Amino acid sequence: MSALSREELSTKPTRRAKVRKRRAHTAEGAAITDLVLGIFRTNGTLMRSGDGMMRDLGVSSARWQVMGAIKDRPRTVAQIARFFESTRQGVLWVVTALVKDGLVELIDNPDHKRAKLVQFTDRGREVNEEIERRQIAWANQLGARFSLAEIRNATEVLKRLSNSVSD
């Protein structure tokens, strides 16, 4: 066997070397990737904004979400988790902190012996009313930057995206 030069070795295919075909996004695939990354960034921005807006009330964005889920009626931890497409453990962690701070309480559930309902305490209801006042002012100010048609179109696209991912 003759010795091969470096150049010949680097260009000669070997059994172990696998040729990888580079995959590329379609135009739609690239656009969806950009949209998803934008949603991730926007979620982070919204969470930080919410944290700052409610900091003096002792309410983080995660707490605000849970409080918003029980605004109209008491719900179980599992119901809150399903509403936000979250984990029960994560919601339970937030609920436990809210109970400790006296903003919510756990009450008996007539439909289930072990799954308690999460509801506001009087103090929690007062804090939630202040959250709602602030959120309305914030949403009105932010909404003024867009047309109603833009907002409704974006909402529809997000709903369709969510439904497509969960199919």
Structure, explained:
With 167 residues, the protein is mainly alpha-helical. The chain is built from 7 helices and 3 strands, in the order H-H-H-E-H-H-E-E-H-H. It has a domain at 57-144: Winged helix-like DNA-binding domain superfamily/Winged helix DNA-binding domain (Arc Repressor Mutant, subunit A), CATH 1.10.10. Strands 1-3-2 form a 3-stranded antiparallel β-sheet. Strand 2 (104-109) and strand 3 (112-120) form a beta hairpin. Helix 4 (77-83) crosses helix 5. It is extended. The relative contact order is 0.08.
Label the structural class: mainly alpha
Look at the structure and name the CATH superfamily of the domain at 57-144: Winged helix-like DNA-binding domain superfamily/Winged helix DNA-binding domain
Strand content: 5-15%
Major β-sheet strand ordering: 1-3-2
Shape: extended
Q: What ranges have pLDDT less than 50 throughout 5 or more consecutive residues?
A: none
Give the H and E element order.
HHHEHHEEHH
| Number of discrete helical segments | 7
Our Rg estimate from Cα atoms comes to: 25 Å
How much helicity do the residues have?
55-70%
Q: Give the rounded overall mean pLDDT.
A: 90
* CA distance, first residue to last residue: 59 Å
Oligomer: single chain
Largest sheet: 3 strands, antiparallel
Q: Any idea of the CATH class of the domain at 57-144?
A: Mainly Alpha
CATH topology of the domain at 57-144: Arc Repressor Mutant, subunit A
Query: Per CATH, which architecture of the domain at 57-144?
Result: Orthogonal Bundle
- Tally of strands: 3
